[in-house]
């Protein structure tokens, strides 16, 4: 498993960002790192949050359980070593469509509410990430309300 993680890491960190396959892996890693940052923001990464995150990653990226765990392991390592969120948000801002960003935000709100409560640090981080992704506050509120009211699962981010 360690070899496959190393292989994924090296291929996803390749400087050839013109290659769509490489860029796709990079954006997946960046999205997962943001999701993990949000999950850790209240210092209590609960089992419901973990389950929501795992399910969303498998569903949105079309991965099996092993692939999604490898991606999350890599993303956790990147998240832990990051000095800020810009390295993740800039990649997503550049390569995601508005619709893909909205789906990502919906997944983020799902993680926030997976444990049944909204911590002040989670809300602050959501606003910060959305600002870095150039998502208008009105859209942030609209998606939040939809998740609060219905818990609707988002579409695909790819």
Describe the protein in words.
This protein has 158 residues and is mostly helical. It has one domain: Orthogonal Bundle (TerB-like). The chain has eight helices and no strands. Helix 2 packs parallel to helix 6, helix 3 runs antiparallel to helix 6 and helix 6 packs across helix 8. The protein is globular and about 30 Å long. The C terminus is likely disordered.
Low-confidence stretches: 9-17, 152-158
How much of the sequence lies in strands comes to: under 5%
User: Could you say which structural class the secondary elements and strand pairing correspond to?
Assistant: mainly alpha
Question: Which fold name is given in CATH as the topology?
Answer: TerB-like
Order of helices and strands: HHHHHHHH
Shape: globular
The top level CATH class name: Mainly Alpha
CATH superfamily: TerB-like
Give the total of beta strands. Answer: 0
The major pleated sheet works out as: none
Domain count: 1
Radius of gyration over alpha carbons?
Answer: 15 Å
Helix content: over 70%
CATH architecture: Orthogonal Bundle
Count up the helices.
8
**Terminal CA distance:** 25 Å
Q: What's the mean pLDDT score?
A: 82
